[in-house]
Design brief:
Helices cover 29% and strands 17% of the residues. Helix 5 runs parallel beside helix 7, helix 11 runs parallel beside helix 16 and helix 12 packs antiparallel against helix 13. The model has no long low-confidence stretch (mean pLDDT 97). Bound molecules: alpha-D-glucopyranose (GLC) and calcium ion.
Length: 557
């Protein structure tokens, strides 16, 4: 594997709407990010991905872009963005923007022109087909937020357009070379401003399975989910190769793909030495509880399954490239609420989960608030829910015969709002996020869980993450932490997740007792050094460590 400038870094995702408000409108903004750059530096962050800040009607919180070359006034101005880039650069922090090019907004000029003249050049920017009331639709695919992928073209009774996500997110027609050239020019325009790169949204969707055709339905609505469609689609890599060649590669940009349903054989082309992306997110753990039926049919994830998914990912990309390792993002529940057994809030358990993920090979990617162990938000009524995906799943629950109370239990587990609540900076009103009314409710636990308190406390989750990041940069261990081969240890031992990171002349053992009871772990040999411990105690008899509940250790062996 070739060495890349970003391999030893630590990355952090900002969901700007909920990060830091500075003008009291209840919405986080670019000035808020600038204000917190020193904070990120203090934590040890090198790369910051910011979820979309382009002009958007916010039907899907910015993932519906109406102008790719302008900053949404809610977030600030282009001058703010340039200031952010300059300030970040001073601190040696790279800024990564979100690249959302599978679709735009129905309020984008391209789509407006397509509606005015579907036969004209902009009609070919989208998938617009003739259709008459009573005709079957071109395919029975279900959009990611529910319902058919087809909607009537505004202003036309006899035409429909394709959208894999929200009806306000029409898919762009990548088969049209003009569309691709517009997109590449826009990417270069941003890279010229000094971006470090992009996180690339929903990218596997850009290639459509043509001609459109039906698949066997997977729910009673007669529709079939897009996962099945994507599994049967070939050819996306040709588009990606062209995009990489014309944009990312000449700039040595860092790119992280949001890649689902990739084929194993494509991994080298995706993230190998000359891959189309630098890296891509590991969603193997995330999808463990996905059911085609919807959230209400989701199984619980056990620690053993979590471990198995992590190790399977490590093996899959071994020697090929780096994955971005996450426990959460803006589409997922909070990791500590998702992967720790229900009802577990102990700081040591949160540290264990974070540590086990952070120490895997790959690029550790934190999500805002993860560094203080922020948790899911409990809502009692659908009226409190903003996320369009959650609102769709609420209906899916009701259609399946659940009561509203039962449905809310599933939303509280999976709603995307869980990760989108404002960052809990301190214990002042609204957690120091805003002086106004926050756009989304602040989690009421902010008095106990907040940055200010944890910064003071040497035993806090925040200081633990800081120590993890410092270890990754420590010249004595960095080579092993970054490049060491991952080898599971005692893989079959129930509720124990342990692995070696094997460097050239150094071996680290990372171990987490993934349960509320103590358990013993055999050692492979003598301990040379104890690098990290999420507890103050450490107990050893002969070649056995007595791990306390949720204990996490990094040892040099
Ligand atoms: C990605 C984003 C998600 C968005 C979707 C459509 O999955 O992460 O937030 O809703 O794409 O753009
Ligand atoms: Ca604001």
């Amino acid at each position: 594997m070739e060495r890349k400038w970003w391999h030893g870094k630590t990355a952090y995702q900002i969901y700007p709407k909920s990060f830091q408000d500075t003008n009291g409108d209840g919405i986080g903004d670019l000035q808020g990010i600038i204000r917190r750059l020193d904070y990120l530096k203090e934590l040890g962050v090198d790369i910051v991905w910011i979820s979309p800040i382009y002009c958007s009607p916010l039907a899907d919180q910015g993932y519906d872009i109406s102008d790719y070359r302008a900053i949404d006034p809610r977030f600030g101005t282009m001058e703010d963005m340039e200031e952010l880039l300059a300030e970040a650069k001073k601190r040696d922090i790279g800024i990564v923007m979100d690249l959302v090019v599978n679709h735009c907004s129905d309020e984008h000029e391209w789509f407006r022109k397509a509606c005015e003249d579907p036969e004209g050049p902009y009609g070919r920017y989208f998938y617009i087909l003739p259709w008459h009331e009573g005709d079957p639709l071109p395919c029975n695919w279900r959009g990611a937020f529910g319902g058919s992928v087809w909607s009537k073209l505004p202003g036309h009774e006899d035409r429909i357009y394709y959208h894999a996500f929200h009806r306000k997110q029409p898919d762009l027609n990548w088969e049209n070379p003009e569309v691709r050239q517009e997109i590449y020019a826009m990417i270069r325009w941003w890279l010229d401003k000094g971006l470090a790169g992009f996180r690339i949204d929903a990218i596997m969707n850009i290639k459509k399975l043509l001609p459109f055709r039906d698949f066997p339905p997977d729910r009673e609505d007669g529709l079939c989910g897009l996962e099945t469609v994507l599994r049967n689609t070939e050819g996306v890599l040709d588009f990606l190769d062209e995009m990489a060649e014309q944009t990312f590669r000449p700039y040595e940009a860092f790119t992280a793909g949001e890649v689902f349903n990739e084929k194993e054989k494509d991994l080298p082309r995706l993230i190998g030495d000359h891959g189309v992306f630098s890296s891509m997110f590991d969603f193997a753990e995330t999808v463990l509880d996905h059911s085609p039926l919807g959230w209400y049919a989701a199984p619980e994830i056990t620690p053993d399954q979590y471990k198995a998914a992590c190790f399977a990912s490590q093996r899959r990309v071994d020697g090929i490239g780096f994955l971005c390792n996450i426990i959460e993002n803006h589409d997922e529940p909070r990791g500590v609420s998702h992967y720790l057994p229900a009802g577990i809030h102990a700081p040591e358990a949160k540290k264990m989960l974070g540590g086990l993920n952070f120490m895997l090979q790959g690029l550790p990617f934190l999500f805002q608030g993860q560094e203080i162990g922020m948790e899911n938000l409990a809502c009692t009524s659908i009226d409190e829910v903003d996320d369009c995906s959650a609102r769709d799943q609420y209906q899916v629950c009701l259609d399946a015969g659940l009561t509203p109370e039962e449905a809310m239990k599933f939303l509280n587990r999976f709603s995307r709002d869980n990760a989108r609540t404002p960052v809990q900076w301190d214990d002042s009103p609204n957690a120091g996020f805003t002086t106004g009314t926050p756009w989304l409710r602040v989690n009421p636990n902010y008095r106990e869980i907040n940055v200010a308190a944890q910064r003071e406390d040497p035993d806090s989750i925040w200081n633990f993450y800081r120590a993890l990041i410092a270890l990754r940069k420590n010249p004595r261990y960095a080579e092993t932490v970054v490049y060491g081969h991952t080898e599971p240890w005692l893989e079959e031992q129930h509720n124990l997740m342990a692995y070696f990171r094997q460097g050239k002349d150094q071996t680290l053992l990372v171990a987490g007792n993934f349960q509320a009871e103590p358990q013993d772990m055999r050692l492979p040999g003598p301990i040379r050094d104890l690098l990290l411990n999420n507890l103050r105690t450490f107990s050893l008899t002969g070649d056995h460590i007595h791990l306390a509940p949720w204990q996490f250790l990094v040892l040099e062996v």
